[in-house]
Amino acid sequence: MLWPLRFHPHAVLVGACIMLGGPMCQAVEPAAATAKTPDWAGLESLLRAGDYERAATAADEIATALKPKRREPDFVAQSIGCFRALVRRGVAEFRLGRLDAAAATLEQARRIPRDSEFKRLLAAEARGANSKVANMLVPLEIDLVELLFLRMLVILERLRLANLESAAAATRSPEEEEAFRKHVADWLDDLDALAKSDGEARKSLEDRFDKSAPAVLASPRNRALVGRFPLSFVAGIRSLELSRLPWGDPRSAANTAAEAAPGPTAGEWLAKSRVQLTDAAAALDEAIAAAAPGGAATLKPDQTIEILLFRSELRIREGEVLLAAGDPSGSSQRFMQATDHLEQIATLRKLPQPKSHPDLFRPLVLCADAMLAEARRHVEKGDPAQGRQTIVAASAILTRAEDLPVPQDHPLRPRLLSLQTLVGEDLAQAGAKLPGVEAANAAARRMRRTLDGAAAAIDLVAP
After folding, report:
1. pTM of the complete model
2. For the segment 270-315, what is each residue's pLDDT rounded down to a tens digit?
3. Domain that holds residue 388
4. Is 350 exposed, middle or buried (0-12, 13-18, 19+ CB in 10 A)?
5. Do the domain assignments include residue 241?
6. By 3-state DSSP, what share of the chain in percent is helix, strand and coil, each rounded to 5?
7. How many domains does the chain contain in total?
């Protein structure tokens, strides 16, 4: 679902509710096009277990089996099934950090509902008496909104990785710098176009959504996607990434007037990000209240899972903003909250090892990063003992992350390795300051005893 140096463009993976195996379209399952029935349940199990490599393969097999053929009687059902399988494949590829593959797969999925023959036949079947297709329309439209959300997240991840590479690069030629600025400008243009499409799609869906089936309305995931959550969440990530660019939004420099009036500073972008993520959290709360008007006590396990999926992503983003703003303590708390949410999800899904789910890798690595920053602050303030204790705790978290079943080419692996190196360096620095601190403390204690003794002697000889 809805995952990341001291300049913190973490190479993380992010996603929407589907990315952790959240409930998808509640529509009628499409008919099989071959003798072998597509194993949808098996695919969902792989996604929920975090086995994204096998999930991508399974989704591809289903998409191939259901590839729609014109003039076939089940063309519409096959098209919908293929669309759903492609979205799942794109999600799995995204989780694996294969952004080019994910973008290509999601583009394939996008083309299916735009096909003129599909739209014509879908409209005809929806008008038919007692048509099952009519009941599938709203869930399908929600999935289309989610597809727009996913495509925006892929672009934001490209920007994140570009920021990471930029931070690691010692120098760049003027030509390379100009090419980088152009890439960023293009990505931001694409984000704006997708955000506009998202707004139009949600506005078109509003009236029909309120009249849809109770099962659709009871889903916090559906409520959140149809509400303002996606655009607020995307805006928050966008502002965070723009804060990491030395020149902010490169498009603002395209005209002389903009150059005369500089855009927001890094701090201002971070402040915007916090406001936007706060709005996303409020939008999620509204979606939860609408889906479960009876309150938390009435929530079913599936509803709770959907809520925790969204909240875990929000906590991670909030943690990143706090870390960038210089609050490593608050940041590490947010990352640990995200870890707790993911463990609760795995427990609710009755997975065999809830504390070893691959999705924990991201918040654990980010948490260790924040804790090391916090430890350095303790040392700088003259408390190397507390700094050393925090470093040891961060090292334990990194060890736990390293033991998780995550692919070796995961984008956060390099950060894990660099943090493990930092642990040794930071421990050495903190340790080097401990003897001096202890000696100073011992001298202070001796001086205090001497002064106390002198005061006592004066008392004894006083008249």
Report:
1. 0.85
2. 999 999 999 999 999 999 999 999 988 899 999 999 999 999 999 9
3. 345-463
4. exposed
5. no
6. 75, 0, 25
7. 1
